């Protein structure tokens, strides 16, 4: 499994491509435009240089150019035909994801396992789009991918033990350990985390406390490395909103109702770290 397909060159796709390439994998990185792909490679190069300069990742021993050379980009899905394992990272919208898997199913070799890097969408539903639902599973990577060493490995209704073992081998090849969870909306981490971030946004909207003070309670009182609102900014408030909406739709439970302030911020383009402003400025 040396050639890895990575679909989607957003925050998560870039982080995954970097992590794979710096561990020696050949990466096939796909997105919808050449501009996005060029920006992704530039961003990965900047991250590598910064991490080496700051000593954040001592395992990076090769030059940035050597690592970047392992990443091949294309706007066409067809080059996924060479992949030994595929991770899909597109935005958390079913209307976008559902068009990708039937195409992959015809392009990729019949023994290739597909992993959906999703925080809330049903793996069983994704598997139903293919002729190989036993080879479809979820891997929920944490952000930033190169710095986070544990993932959620999600078993869909039809996912086979063989496919889970393939995924574990894949993850182990670049230093990741996994926690196996069953397929349910939000899995473990986001069923709790998205609700927490959404509720923290309600606290700001209702004037209970400022964003700074909300996060201060979690950092100072509970020893969290980051508060929920800074975490939301890091993940991307647009991704948070999409995930909360998926949970609301899946459970039909009012506790997942998206906070109006969160929706307004996303509409205003305040998505967090990725574009410079969310609950905090960057």
UniProtKB/TrEMBL annotation:
Keyword Ribonucleoprotein: no
Annotated GO biological process: fatty acid metabolic process
Gene3D superfamilies assigned to the protein according to its UniProt record, in alphabetical order: N-(1-d-carboxylethyl)-l-norvaline Dehydrogenase, domain 2, NAD(P)-binding Rossmann-like Domain
Record keywords: NAD, Oxidoreductase
Tree of life domain: Bacteria
Pfam families: 3HCDH, 3HCDH_N
InterPro entries registered for this protein in UniProt: 3-OHacyl-CoA_DH, 3-OHacyl-CoA_DH_NAD-bd, 3HC_DH_C, 6-PGluconate_DH-like_C_sf, 6PGD_dom2, NAD(P)-bd_dom_sf
The keyword Disulfide bond is assigned to this record: no
Residue sites binding NAD(+) per the record: 8-13, 31, 92, 97, 119, 143, 274
Gene Ontology MF term list: NAD+ binding; oxidoreductase activity, acting on the CH-OH group of donors, NAD or NADP as acceptor
Protein name per its UniProtKB record: 3-hydroxybutyryl-CoA dehydrogenase
Site features described as Important for catalytic activity, chain residue numbers: 140
Domain 3-hydroxyacyl-CoA dehydrogenase NAD binding: 4-183
Domain 3-hydroxyacyl-CoA dehydrogenase C-terminal: 186-282
